[in-house]
Amino acid sequence: MKRFFNSRNSLIILAVLMFSLPFIGIGSRDALRKNRNDVKTWLPDGFQETADYAWFEEHFPHDQFILASWDGCTLDDPEGTLDNMARKLLARDEEAIDEGKKPYFKVVLTGKELVKQTEERFDDLSRQQVLERLEGSLIGDDHQRTCLVATLADVFHGEDLAAVIQCVKNTANDCGVLGDRKTYPKGQLLPVKNGKVVELHLGGPPVDNAAIDYEGKRTLIRLAGLSFAIGLGLSWLCFRSVRL
Predict the structure, then answer these.
(1) pLDDT tens per residue across span 184-206
(2) SS3 letters for 74-112?
(3) Average pLDDT for residues 50-60, to the nearest whole number?
(4) DSSP code string of 1-24
(5) Could you give the CA distance from residue 12 to residue 125 in angstroms, rounded to a whole number?
(6) Contact at 8 Å (CB) between 70 and 198?
(7) Element housing 28 (H / E)
């Protein structure tokens, strides 16, 4: 061992190490970037279940969507916060298109707008009948609670999906709803109603996927740190030399 780690070979070892370090870093970075919750990657290509899933997607395409609401989000909201949020989301996309960027949303629909469209289409129904038909979709069982559904323009993953969700949170901040404490305007009082902070609630498959991606990334970073510590510990036990 001492003959191997002499002054002649140490430069070669250090050179190989320095050459390898960038590839190790690139591999670690790619592992974090490619970490995403995608059912397509769960099954091998040769499985019948994989073929069935591909057939289903081809014949029954579906859109990704995000649901947004908060305590006190109702159809008769006098402040019109939900409608204002929908307008701001669409305005953000129009600005993105003008700048040559990719839009986030294809359709942004509120419960109030859905009720209006249904009343116009079925003018023989009373408002109560319309609310009963829409109950369980964008309308709650009390016929007051409602939400906003934003249909995504494309299938987003990883950092792109996180950016879409952050856009919704930032828009909520601008509309007087606490979407994200980190980006809420500094010095501005938190929105409070009936003694409670008016905080945004999000739902939908993209929100679930983003949460799983985030936790998966945190786990990978934690495991990388543990692996590094264990590697150093084993090296010390084997060599008993800081230099080696």
Answers:
(1) 988 888 899 888 899 999 999 88
(2) ECCCCCCHHHHHHHHHHHHHHHHHHCCCCCCEEEEEEHH
(3) 83
(4) -TTTTSHHHHHHHHHHHHHHHHHH
(5) 84
(6) yes
(7) helix 7-33
